[in-house]
Structure formats: C-alpha cells, structure tokens
C-alpha cells in the first residue's frame, strides 16, 4: 500500500515537473496573434462600447428624449427598465431587448429612445472594432 502511494506521489511530481518545464520553454517574446470573428458578439471587450461624449452625454440624451408614458404617469408607475443590446463594429445599436419585468408602457418608451440613439463608439478587441453587448438601465421616476 505504501509503495503504491509513493508511486502515485512520484507520478504526480513528474507530471507537474513536465508541465512546468513545457510552460517555461514557450518563448514569451513571440508575438501572439488575435483572431477575431467578424460575426462574434463579445460579452466583454478590452475597450467597451461607449456613447459619444460619455456618461454625462448619455444622461442628457435620455433626459431630453424620454417622454414619460401618459398611462404610467397617471397610474403613478415608476421603475427601471434594463435594456441589453449590442453595438456592432460600426457603432450601430442592434437587437435591443428588455431584461426585466416592468410596466409595458415603460418598456416601449425605453426601447423607443434606445433606437433613437446616435452611433456609439464600438468596442475594441486587439485594437480592432468588434460587436459587443451592452446593458443600459433606464430609470423612470416621477417628480
């Protein structure tokens, strides 16, 4: 029994040693090549997509363009609509989708305004523009 345990431990050390030697033999100075599929949609990228002008300008855009739905205003309905879409490599917003369950009129208004947005700055991966998902919360609050 002891001999078999010693053999197993010895084999583990040999395996780890071989793996370590292989990993350290790889030339770290060689240039790596990043292959990007034009149709792939990234969840995250080295540089995420952004609204032109940044956070301040997206807040201004939403404030200027959102029209509080009459139905929701009359009923005192407030809420946050979480919209997921992807920004294509040309900066266009594609396939906006509401992720949470909120009043239908708030959903429709959030999607309407998202579809009005100008082109965004696309995400970058390896210095190249790529398609990338973005999630944007749109808050409806009565004053």
Q: In the CATH hierarchy, what is the architecture of the domain at 41-140 at level 2?
A: 2-Layer Sandwich
- Give the uncertain stretches in residue-range form: 1-34
Mean pLDDT: 81
Order of helices and strands: HEHHEEHEE
Number of helices: 4
Overall shape: it is elongated
Helix content: 25-40%
Overall number of strands: 5
Main β sheet profile: 5 strands, mixed
* Distance between the ends: 77 Å
Structure class: alpha+beta
Using the CA coordinates, give the radius of gyration: 25 Å
> What is the top-level CATH class of the domain at 41-140?
Alpha Beta
> Can you tell me the CATH topology of the domain at 41-140?
Fusion Protein Consisting Of Minor Coat Protein, Glycine Rich Linker, Tola, And A His Tag, Chain: A, Domain 2
Describe the 3D structure.
The chain has 143 residues and is of the alpha+beta class. It is 38% helix and 23% strand. The protein has a domain at 41-140: Fusion Protein Consisting Of Minor Coat Protein, Glycine Rich Linker, Tola, And A His Tag, Chain: A, Domain 2. It has helices at residues 2-25, 54-65, 70-75, 104-116, and strands at 41-42, 79-87, 93-98, 123-125, 128-140. Strands 1, 2, 3, 4 and 5 form a five-stranded mixed beta sheet that branches. The longest helix has 24 residues, at 2-25.
Please outline the helices and strands.
Blueprint: H1 2-25, E1 41-42, H2 54-65, H3 70-75, E2 79-87, E3 93-98, H4 104-116, E4 123-125, E5 128-140
Parallel strand pairs: 1-5
Antiparallel strand pairs: 2-3, 2-5, 4-5
Question: Brief description of this entry?
Answer:
The protein has 143 residues and is an alpha+beta fold.
